[in-house]
Structure to design on (139 residues):
């Protein structure tokens, strides 16, 4: 809401300002945003729609199946580490993510745009506590 007000004020002053692009350009080198982009990319690739429980299961590798091929297990381990590191930072051995703790941390990033390559990724929440990642190409 603030961004649109600032853009409107700039237009009234005879200046062109795209608050969204200004915001994203200031974040390019921010390490936290790179982590958010990585985490959202994992979520987008793995699920069309998901719950905090799905993320917790991946972090805890509860879906690991002995019949999975080696490359799939490696990808699962990479994705698990990416999500765990982003949501919880460095964790002690034996750490177990709970759906409640994951949900709490996901909520902190809902509607937070982040650039990932040539796209903008945004974590969205539905009223039924499902999440999804929306993606838009950069213009």
């Amino acid at each position: 809401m603030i961004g649109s007000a600032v853009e409107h004020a700039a237009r009234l002053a005879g200046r062109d300002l795209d608050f969204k692009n200004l915001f994203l350009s200031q974040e390019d080198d921010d390490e936290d945003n790179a982590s958010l982009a990585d985490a959202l990319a994992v979520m987008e690739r793995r699920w069309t729609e998901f719950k905090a429980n799905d993320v917790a299961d991946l972090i805890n590798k509860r879906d690991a199946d002995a019949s999975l091929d080696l490359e799939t297990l490696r990808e699962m381990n990479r994705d698990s580490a990416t999500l765990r590191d982003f949501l919880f930072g460095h964790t002690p051995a034996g750490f177990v993510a709970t759906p409640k703790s994951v949900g709490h941390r996901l909520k902190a990033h809902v509607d937070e745009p982040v650039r990932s390559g040539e796209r903008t990724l945004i974590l969205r929440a539905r009223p039924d506590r499902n999440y999804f990642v929306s993606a838009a190409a950069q213009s």
Remarks:
- The CA atoms of residues 59 and 80 lie 4 Å apart.
- The mean pLDDT is 83.
- The chain is about 50% helix and 10% strand.
- Strands lie at 114-116, 119-125, 131-137.
